[in-house]
Amino acid sequence: MRRMALFFGAACLVFSVAQAPAGAQSQAAAAARSGKTASGWKCGVPSPMHAVPVGDSPNHMYIVQQVKCTATKGEIAGVKEQGGAATEFADVVGDKITGHGVFVETLANGDKVNATYRFEGTSKDKVFQMGSNKWTFVSGTGLMKGAKGSGTCKAKGNAEGGIDFDCTGTYTLAK
Fold first, then answer.
1. Which residue range(s) make up the domain with 49?
2. How many domains does the chain have?
3. What pLDDT digit, counting tens, does each position of 134-153 carry?
């Protein structure tokens, strides 16, 4: 059950972020008001994780969990993505997983960006196999205050029992 739940948190990575144009970080931040995103994330095992059987069938449960993730690549307007935490709700029926969550990311300069996401995936023998999500920026601080963005992620289980994400999308900074 714990490994199956991993997808969710990892799904959270929903919104990876962008590649900035060449130049100094401050120039990039001023010049790159919009761009494409290309991010990678490595997420661990959810903690805490709470699973509750629904009772309508033996293979149906609701899960609420949180998972920590580390960026493996990606930046927004020249600022590297650093890490984040996903908090999510999952509906598990057998080997099928669907749900939604919020991913709170911290950039290398300390700015935060928050994204909501919806995900779906599959597991085998309670081990996450693969999945995808759609994400949307909803708020942020500093450079990310008022930013708009959306995209998708592909996810697959990793050898440590977590989930790896490969994400793409677009963003536009305010002002």
1. 2-172
2. 1
3. 999 999 999 999 999 999 99
